[in-house]
Amino acid sequence: MKKSDVVHMVLGDKQAKLPRRETAKTWASGNVALCKYWGKRDQEINLPVTSSLSVSLGVEKGATTTLTVSHRSQDSVILNGQKIEWTSAFGKRLLQFINLFREDTQICFDIDIQSTIPIAAGLASSACGFASLVMAFNQIYDWKLNESALSILARLGSGSASRSVSQGFVEWRAGIRRDGMDSYGELVPATWPDFCVGLLIIDGGEKHISSREAMQRTVTTSSLYSAWPMKVSRDLSALRKAIEEKDFLLLGETAESNALTMHATMLSAWPPVSYILSKTIEAMQKIWRLRDEGLSLFFTQDAGPNLKLLFLEKDAKTVQTHFPEIDILRPFARI
Ligand code: PMV
Asked: How much is the pTM?
């Protein structure tokens, strides 16, 4: 199955439409997985081996995309004020993605993406970037797609982008179809106003190995990977229960254990993959110590050395005292 086939299935007749507006501006928030997506069953259209569940990063951390029909004969992309060259790896990936959405190759676009999340540092920058881009195409072409359809299209850019179309807790169901039409993010109907995420940046630089390559290597070489789907299935049930019953302890324990298991599968890949730096370990140990002393504080970690701390508003001041450098986000503050 090719990406263009999926686009065809989602858009149908709408694909032949011409832009209906000169410009569109959209925003999508980043997301952090509490139960991770690690491994694809289809690498071309980003179908996951398992389902996953995330919480969005609220109104402060995400991407704003301004898409404008260009009067020049070439597309242009500016990311955080910097022009992206089409010959760069990111430029090529983006061009391939943009091309999926235009039947008429005469039409060119100026794309301006402003991201408040460090790029490629394992902080979900690609998720909100691709999600906001798809939402901008939806506006400019006036496709009027629903969130499931937008999520499927965003997934073609990056798997985790399928969870950045909606805001709040989002479950991306793996689906079983080969065309992936049942693989999209769905909002979990719950809010948790005092839920906090603290971004602990340990190293904001670009990751040394892409999550795409790292997850594929894990799937093909790690002897621990066969246990991952079972772990995910148990963790998803626990997380659904924790969210429904506002059981923070259950949520924190499940999310932290899920992240550690994902990193353990990577470590057991060959050649081994590790995003963990010594400072990451130090921060983990500090969290474990604080927890032994009674603080309800947990963490999760993605494809980068940084940690996302999980805690409730009542503990925000204490957490900030121990980690003065964290950026505290409140995912449900203004939803
Ligand atoms: O969507 P990708 O290809 O950037 O992969 C995301 C992988 C993790 O962030 C590590 C896990 C997740 O579920 O977001």
From this structure: 0.96
